[in-house]
Design brief:
The complex is a heterodimer. Chain A is of the alpha+beta class. Chain A has a single domain (5-105), classed as RNA polymerase II/Efflux pump adaptor protein, barrel-sandwich hybrid domain (OB fold (Dihydrolipoamide Acetyltransferase, E2P)), CATH 2.40.50. In chain A, 20% of the residues lie in helices and 36% in strands. Chain A contains four helices and nine strands; from the N terminus they run βββαβββββααβα. Chain A has a six-stranded antiparallel β-sheet with strand order 1-2-3-9-8-5. Chain A is globular and about 35 Å long. The model of chain A has no long low-confidence stretch (mean pLDDT 95). Among the domains of chain B are: 3-55 and 143-234, Probable tRNA modification gtpase trme, domain 1 (Gyrase A, domain 2), CATH 3.30.1360.120; 285-373, Aminomethyltransferase beta-barrel domains (Elongation Factor Tu (Ef-tu), domain 3, Beta Barrel), CATH 2.40.30.110. Chain B is built from eight helices and 22 strands. Chain B has a six-stranded mixed β-sheet, with helices on both faces. A six-stranded antiparallel barrel of chain B has the order 15-18-17-16-19-20. A five-stranded antiparallel β-sheet of chain B has the order 6-7-8-5-9, with helices on one face. In chain B, helix 2 (38-47) packs across helix 7 (225-234). The chains are: A alpha+beta, B alpha+beta.
Chain lengths: 123, 373
C-alpha cells in the first residue's frame, strides 16, 4: 500500500497496485456533520480526474464527490447504503467510498501529501 | 453576504464556549449545532428538552393605542382591538395583494402597568418590517436588549418549573410576564418544533444565567438551528422564504385557519378582497408533504413531476427526518389536476418516485388543558 494522498476537494486516496481506494477526509466529515445517504457510483463507470462521481448527503447539504484520478470504478462500499454514518465514524478507513482502477498512475504523484494537506487546511 | 456583514447575537461567546458550530443565517452568525450533532439534538428535543437561542428573531413592543391598533389592523388579519390578553396568535403581515410579508406571533400583554402589543417576527424580514413599523405606528420599542430563548420538548415544563414560578395550568399559546432575577421576562407556551415548550424573552444580561440554570439542572441540552429546521419540518410548520413569501397568500399556503374571517370583510385590511375570493374559489396551489421511495434526500427547489415527466410542482423544504429515518419534504403542486398515481422528483436529472404524505409528519404535542395534541 502506498502513502495516503489528499485532494483539495478533501478526499483521501490510497494506491495499491493499480487500484486506488477513495474516501473523504476526517476534516470533510466533520464539517459536513451527520451524513445520512451516500449516492454511490456505478461499477464500471469510467471517470476523469476532478469529474463528479457521486454525492454525499448530510443533514445540512448535498456535496459532490470527485474522482481524484482517471480510471474506472471497480468496487463500491455497499455498507454505506445501509449505514452512511460509517463515514462519520471512520472516514479514512471503514468509510471508504469507491475503488478505481487507475489509467494514469503518474497523476497520483501530483496529489498532496498529509503534510501538504494539513498546511492546505490551515490556509 | 460577506462574513464582515454578519451580526452577532448577544450570547455568541457563550455558544462558542459550548462548542457551537456557526452558520450565516438571515444576516446573523448563528449556532447550527453543538458537539452532539443535528440528529442527536433533534432526538433529544423529541424525547427530553432542548434549549435554543433564537435571539436573531425580531421583537417589538407597541403601546396599545387606538392609532397603533388601527394601523396594525390595516396589514394584520386579526381583530387586534378585541384580542384577549395573555394569548398568542399566529398571524401575518400582509401586502396589498394579500401576500405574506412575514408570519408573526402576536399577543397583548400588560407590562409596567400598561398594555402593549408584543410581536415576534423573522430576522430575515427585520429590514422591511422595521420600515413598515416606522411608517405606521408610534412610541414602539424594538428590543435590542433582549434575548429570545426557546425551551422545547416533552420535559420542558419540568426543566423550567424549578427555575420559574410557572402555573401548571398554562396552556399552549398562553403568554405571561414573570419575574426572574429582578427583571421582567415574557414567557409563552409556544415554539417551532411541534413539541410542548416555551419561548422566553429575557434581558440580555440575564439570559446566560437562565440558560445555564436550565441545562445544568436538567436533562436539557443546547440545540442549534440545524435541528430546529428538521423539527419544524417534521411538524409541518412553514418557514419564511421557503413555504411562504410575498408572492404567496395565506390561503394558497394552506394557512387560512390563521385568518380572522370577519376581518376579510374589512376594506382597510391589505388584500382582504383577494383573500376572501381565494377562500371561496378552487385553490390554485396545494401544499403537500412528500417522501421518497428510495434513499435520496429531498431538497428545496427540486421540481415535482407526474407520470409523463410533466412538471406539476416544486419542493420548498426538504430534510432528513431523524424520527422517520428517511427524507421528508414540503412542496406545492401548481397543476393539481395533472397529479398522476405515481409522481416523481427530479434529483440531479434522475426521476425518483415520491409518496404524497399528510402534514404534519410527526404528531404535534402542544399542551391543551389535560391533553397534549
Amino acid at each position: 500500500m502506498g502513502e495516503k494522498k489528499y485532494t483539495e476537494e478533501h478526499e483521501w486516496v490510497q494506491l495499491s497496485g493499480e487500484i486506488a481506494t477513495v474516501g473523504i477526509t476526517n476534516h470533510a466529515q466533520e464539517s459536513l456533520g451527520d451524513i445520512v445517504f451516500v449516492d454511490l457510483p456505478n461499477i464500471g463507470k469510467e471517470v476523469k480526474a476532478k469529474e463528479e462521481l457521486c454525492v454525499i448527503e448530510s443533514v445540512k447539504a448535498a456535496s459532490d464527490i470527485y474522482s481524484p484520478l482517471d480510471g474506472e470504478v471497480t468496487e463500491i462500499n455497499d455498507n454505506l447504503s445501509n449505514d452512511a454514518s460509517i463515514v462519520n465514524q471512520d472516514a479514512e478507513n471503514e468509510g471508504w467510498i469507491f475503488k478505481i482502477k487507475v489509467s494514469n498512475p503518474e497523476q497520483y504523484n501530483t496529489l498532496m501529501s498529509l503534510d501538504q494537506y494539513l498546511k492546505f487546511l490551515d490556509k | 453576504m460577506t462574513e464582515e456583514a454578519l451580526k452577532n447575537i448577544y450570547l455568541k461567546d457563550f455558544h462558542k464556549k459550548n462548542d457551537a458550530k456557526f452558520i450565516a443565517f438571515a444576516g446573523y452568525d448563528m449556532p447550527i449545532n453543538y458537539k452532539q450533532g443535528i440528529i442527536n439534538e433533534h432526538l433529544h428535543v423529541r424525547n427530553h428538552t432542548g434549549v435554543f437561542d433564537v435571539s436573531h428573531m425580531g421583537q417589538i413592543l407597541i403601546p396599545f393605542s387606538e392609532k397603533n391598533i388601527s394601523a396594525l389592523e390595516s396589514y394584520i388579519p386579526l381583530n387586534i382591538k378585541h384580542i384577549i390578553s395573555n394569548k398568542c396568535h399566529y398571524s401575518f403581515i400582509l401586502n396589498s395583494n394579500g401576500g405574506i410579508v412575514d408570519d408573526v406571533m402576536i399577543s397583548k400583554i400588560k407590562f409596567d402597568n400598561r398594555e402593549f402589543v408584543y410581536i415576534v417576527y423573522n430576522s430575515s424580514r427585520k429590514k422591511i418590517l422595521n420600515k413598515i413599523f416606522n411608517a405606521t405606528i408610534s412610541n414602539f420599542k424594538i428590543f435590542e436588549d433582549r434575548c429570545l430563548i426557546a425551551i422545547q420538548g416533552p420535559e420542558s415544563f419540568t426543566s423550567i418549573s424549578s427555575i420559574l414560578n410557572l402555573p401548571a395550568s398554562m396552556n399552549f399559546l398562553n403568554i405571561q410576564v414573570l419575574q426572574y432575577e429582578d427583571s421582567d421576562l415574557f414567557i409563552s407556551r409556544s415554539g417551532y418544533t411541534g413539541e410542548d415548550g416555551f419561548e422566553i424573552s429575557i434581558l440580555n444580561n440575564k439570559a446566560e444565567k437562565l440558560i445555564s440554570d436550565i441545562i445544568n439542572n436538567n436533562n436539557a441540552i443546547l440545540c442549534g438551528l440545524g435541528c430546529r429546521d428538521s423539527l419544524r419540518l417534521e411538524a409541518g410548520l412553514s418557514l419564511y422564504g421557503n413555504e411562504i413569501n410575498e408572492n404567496i397568500n395565506p390561503v394558497q399556503a394552506g394557512l387560512s385557519w390563521a385568518l380572522d374571517k370577519n376581518r376579510l370583510q374589512d376594506n382597510n385590511l391589505n388584500g382582504s378582497k383577494i383573500l376572501s375570493q381565494a377562500l371561496s374559489s378552487i385553490p390554485s396551489l396545494k401544499k403537500i408533504g412528500l417522501s421518497p421511495i428510495n434513499k435520496i434526500m429531498l431538497r428545496n427547489k427540486m421540481t415535482i413531476h407526474n407520470n409523463n415527466k410533466e412538471e406539476i410542482g416544486f419542493i420548498t423544504s426538504g430534510c432528513y427526518s431523524p424520527i422517520l429515518k428517511k427524507s421528508i419534504g414540503i412542496g406545492y403542486i401548481n397543476k393539481i389536476t395533472n397529479i398522476s398515481e405515481k409522481n416523481y422528483v427530479n434529483v440531479r436529472d434522475k426521476y425518483e418516485e415520491i409518496k404524497l404524505e399528510k402534514i404534519p409528519f410527526v404528531k404535534k404535542k402542544y399542551k391543551k388543558g389535560d391533553k397534549y395534541g
